[in-house]
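Q: Got a minute? One more chain.
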Amino acid sequence: MTSDLVVILTALNLEYEAVRGKLDNPRVHWHPAGTRFETGRLGRDGCRVALGLVGKGNHPAAVLAERAIAEFSPAAVLFAGVAGGLWPSIKLGDLVVASQVYAYHGGTSEDDGLKARPRAWEIPHRAGQIAQHLIRSEEWLDPSVGGERPTVHFGPIAAGEVVQDSSVSEHARWVREHYNDALAIEMEAAGVAQAAHLNEALPIVVIRGISDRADGTKSSTDGQNWQPRAAANAAAFAVALAQQLVTDSTAGQERNSEMGPSFRNIATGNARVGVQAGQIFGGAHVGDRADQPVDIVAAIAELRRLVRAAHQDGRLDDDTYKAAEAELDDATDRASSGRGGLLVTLKRLSGLVADVAEVAARLSAVIVAVRDLS
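A: Always. Here it is, folded:
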């Protein structure tokens, strides 16, 4: 089962604060090596987010992205922040969602000049489909940002190791010559993309708000406060995409769960196949049996016991355990009072306990029972 947590990384403090403002009750989560993350939820019913600050540059971005992936086992990694626009058609405040990321500083120096040796990482297909749907729907727009409605562009981003603030420098010429389809330029996306690539193609999406034109006018646009506005737009899109990525993954799991696994037995001679089944949790009954009433409140109490045991033996961290207890409290209230929404609450709980096999299996059975009673 897939995690309901998404890692969102930023390079600058203003980018970090733009995302942090979207989180409910963020709590500090220290990595043993000293990296400080904050975890929170996107609203009461939203997905969980682990937020981290990586600083400038592809190298620290790669290291801390890898650290976040190992620490949280997320459903996806998003990088949200500001960048320089490379084309006049891309306005200040617009967004660029990376269809692919170029690490443009790779090359070889030969007698007749510098030759490009590019590396590129494409956005995973499913993540790209979800991002483009979100772009079309405009459901991500945050009216509190103000100003002209930004356009979201889907195209390549160039990631290097220097701040480009010229349209006529040798560096600018190099980018135009070898990466002339890039829409924006920045300094961290290649590191994050590489970390995701090394983790079995974990979905990674880079979202950049355009705060300058990379043409020598950066000090002027920064003075006009375009950085905070661009960062706010990027944060709004990132949190909307995080929620959509988790929702889509959960929906896919539910479809697979409803279909169930298939098993094929072949009987030879006088043998007959009686039952085809995979792994069975709990009792198995064969033959006619009258339906028995299900005590949902008691089933939730048993889930609570299993969740506490998992926390005590270290299989659930403190933050996840507290969130699971809150969902169990809500589920108990809804089951006892007959209020609606119990199934939704249990599905949220399933995202929290997905990595604890016996809890996840027991919870799946409860969800089926609740669905049958609906």
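A: Residues 11 and 56 are 5 Å apart (CA to CA).
Q: Perfect, thanks.
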